[in-house]
Amino acid sequence: MRSQPRMRPPDGAEPGSVLDHVDTPALLVDLDVLDANIATMASFAAETGVSLRPHAKAHKCAEVARKQIAAGAVGICCQKLSEAEALVAAGLDDVLVTNELVGPAKIRRLVELARHATVAACVDDPRNVAELAAAAHGGDVVLALLVEVDIGDGRCGAPPGEAVVALADTIESSPGLRFAGLHAYRGGIQHVRSAAERRDAAHAADERARIAREALAARGIRCDRVTGGGTGTFPFDAELGVHDEIQPGSYVFMDADYARNEPASTAPAFAQSLFVWSTVMSAPSSDRVVLDAGTKSLPPDSGPPTIPGWPNLEYRSAGDEHGVVVVPPGSAAPSLGEKLALVPGHCDPTVNLYDWLVCVRDRVVVDVWPVVGRGASY
Amino acid sequence: MRSQPRMRPPDGAEPGSVLDHVDTPALLVDLDVLDANIATMASFAAETGVSLRPHAKAHKCAEVARKQIAAGAVGICCQKLSEAEALVAAGLDDVLVTNELVGPAKIRRLVELARHATVAACVDDPRNVAELAAAAHGGDVVLALLVEVDIGDGRCGAPPGEAVVALADTIESSPGLRFAGLHAYRGGIQHVRSAAERRDAAHAADERARIAREALAARGIRCDRVTGGGTGTFPFDAELGVHDEIQPGSYVFMDADYARNEPASTAPAFAQSLFVWSTVMSAPSSDRVVLDAGTKSLPPDSGPPTIPGWPNLEYRSAGDEHGVVVVPPGSAAPSLGEKLALVPGHCDPTVNLYDWLVCVRDRVVVDVWPVVGRGASY
């Protein structure tokens, strides 16, 4: 009972099938574009001299992570311990959990995972550090911990200055713990539309990380790395010299929300590789057709999907399992049974709804990859 | 490779464990409340004389469906064919798919499913009916089809009147097909806040179903049932006498969005049975704490979760895996490591994120049920 199989892949998702035979909804990835995006970010990091540790919260998929490592990434990030467990079980061996892990169950699991891979996690509270120290000591492992810096977004993190220094000092003086740097990531600014405003916001956050790093240096505490930065801000984070390591995730896939950002002039370009494959299941009227993909296939948190190839058409959410496509007067409309590839509003929660990534090149299925971190929220 | 296990249940989710030992995020159901909700709706249906066919899109769980059947439900609804397949595989034997099934792959699967259970599906297009007729004839089964009526929400359905009659007539005259009634459901009005306005909207939709039914009668086509109605409108749908069968789903769990509805005076009361169990993973400041449940654990489409027992505190989404709890000046706050039970904004997409329902009575785990329809979008 406690081990249940996942959903099987959609019908027709077999290597060699033409895309039109893949049933819907299905999550598609164009491997040519994915490979190009991975190479582009790897080149940026190499040219800029920052380490690249892509965030696997976007893809939750071991095959994508392995491509990133093969292209030069130093390791991966995960947001949750269960994501890290799933990816280590699938063969990845260097994972930073960019989050606090609180409570005896998670600390026990972190100690266990540290026996099998190079892992690190974040802290922002001395009580948590004390529990981690006790568990590491009892478990006979060394846990690498980064201090998360409050970079001004009202979420987690210790204020730069004395609080960060005290945490790092406690870590360094605890047998079983190792201070592995500062975590400084600000999610809320990744989608500031104006490149100039996004740059200013990134630099303001980075300034707090710089203060924290200098406070450590003033107390003689060595800081191996400052890590952070997402697909919206990595060129700005890299240019200041505060970050040694960047953590972009969405660049492998991109989404409709990122497409609305004004790109930074210093950023390389990424193309859309992720699509939700959907069928017209009703064509009741000349002003609309209805797709079989609603909010359970296309999370609406960052706006509706776009429909490449149909610039006049607009997707309007119509419930958990329906999407209405509004057809303006005089515009052509897809017909009953026709399949459309939609660009999701937000790639991360979209991927989290699917058990399989259907990999396509030139509209032919070439592979089907399990999303091993799907639902890995704990 | 093509059969992958689901995520395991959260640590501590073992029968006999106290709730505080269950790790987070986890999806909890209070079985005493669930049982009471199921009994309450069954009594309403029995007293009103309508058939009850609860919608399994809300729970996607065979154990919940079996409780509903045991209490008198005539069968269940599913929104997707893969949901129906998962629930039939788990032992349910009477399923209405409240949606159009378009394309050869789905039609093949519907024919196959009809060999193993009493199934029905909806149609709104003569081309789809022709394909279903050909498949049923070739597959040597009789497919029960309901005509979906366009009840004015701009989604699927044939207009009441001649279009509905023509579809029913085609079904009746096709060997291998059986006309099984009218489907008339309007999702968008379930959350109209004012009971009077919700009643008016339900009656307006029901009036279109009544016109369709009378058009069929005028042509001598027998209509076994009109089915529809959700947790927000079922008392209004039942009172008009148009619906023979109601399809409420959310009543088993309820959610923060339904709690904002003004209840109908004729409706029985349902209580909250579904919760997302979450841990305070950061307590960085007196004005906030941070929970380990973000939009990947609590979909934000119908507003934020509420926090029972902490009336002064407000949940604010802070990304895919973080939830900030805003603590007003002078208010008590939960402490680092403390666990909170949140009421999700919208039960249906919340359930769809979890592989397991952790069943609790009096804060002790009594069972763990697989959400067999999780991710069943195709």
Description of the molecule:
Two copies of one chain form a homodimer. Chain A is of the alpha/beta class. Chain A is 30% helix and 22% strand. Chain A is built from ten helices and 16 strands. The first copy, chain A, has helices at 31-48, 62-70, 81-89, 104-114, 126-139, 162-172, 195-218, 234-240, 256-259, 347-351; strands at residues 26-30, 51-52, 76-78, 94-100, 118-123, 143-148, 177-183, 226-228, 245-246, 274-285, 288-291, 314-317, 323-326, 339-342, 356-361, 364-370. In chain A, strands 1, 10, 11, 12, 13, 14, 15 and 16 form an eight-stranded mixed sheet that branches. An eight-stranded parallel sheet of chain A has the order 2-9-8-7-6-5-4-3. In chain A, α3 packs parallel to α4 (104-114), α4 packs across α5 and α5 runs parallel beside α6. The mean pLDDT of chain A is 96.
- Percent helix of chain A: 25-40%
Largest sheet of chain A: 8 strands, mixed
The two chains with the largest interface, and their residue counts, are: A-B, 82 and 82 residues
Please report which band the strand proportion of chain A falls in: under 5%, 5-15%, 15-25%, 25-35%, 35-45% or over 45%.
15-25%
Radius of gyration of chain A: 22 Å
Please provide the count of β strands of chain A.
16
